[in-house]
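Below is how a single chain appears once it has passed through the pipeline. First comes the sequence as given, then the structure the pipeline wrote out for it. We keep one example in the README because the format questions we get most often are answered faster by looking than by reading.
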Amino acid sequence: MTLASLRSRKLLALLALGWVGLLAGCGTQPVGGDAPAEWHTASDDTDARKRARTRLALATGYYENGQYTIALDEQKKALQADPSFADAYNLGGLVYMALGDMALAGSHFQRAIALNPRDADALHNLGWLQCQQGQYPQAVQQFQRAVAVPTYPGRAKTLMAQGICEARGGDASQAEATLMRSYELDAGNPVTGYTLAQLLFRRGDNARAQFYIRRLNNSELANAESLWLGIRVERRLNDRRAMEQLGVQLRRRFPQSRELLAYEQGNFDE
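Resulting structure:
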């Protein structure tokens, strides 16, 4: 069983940086020292690990449905079946994050990493937890360790989180470079595109900001925040027609948004 990628249901929540955790698949990876090792497959599992995987599959389903207490109970049963199951500790960390217990979340991620130092998902999740707690250098270190895992498929997502964290920590230049790397790997990620456009807008690189925000606003993933940023970018570039078109979309699609109120009041520098 692998933990599937958990995508946010609303771009607005992502843009507000309010997601619980960014989780890619906890796929099986080669284990061992420096010598090449065979990949772990289901046939290598002990009976205890198989029971633990079954429990973890249930726990994952409950977690994805927001039933955190039930998910935690199933996660505990997975660890009772196999106390060395790193994936179960990783999911436990996510559940505790959702429940607001950051101390227990951190200890679970660290335990997962201790059991499997190349668990890029746990490294990513620990980094995001540390970022939320303002521990920016430590968070960036975890993200870099995750990206360095050769078999990790979630590099774009982790680079996105790293860039957001670097921006929060005040290193806008490095954040821009990191987000560019993420964008090169996954140009369709709306959070990466929005955050990159926002950084460029803030430092006055309006033409480049226009490129990224227009691409987002021309997709189905546009929302009130992205439309509002697009309006301000077009205003700086004196493209009144583009401003008005975005304003029409904002009024039609998000009539109750604070962004529309700011637009109608002319608060472009908010």
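The radius of gyration is 21 Å.

See the next section for the split statistics.
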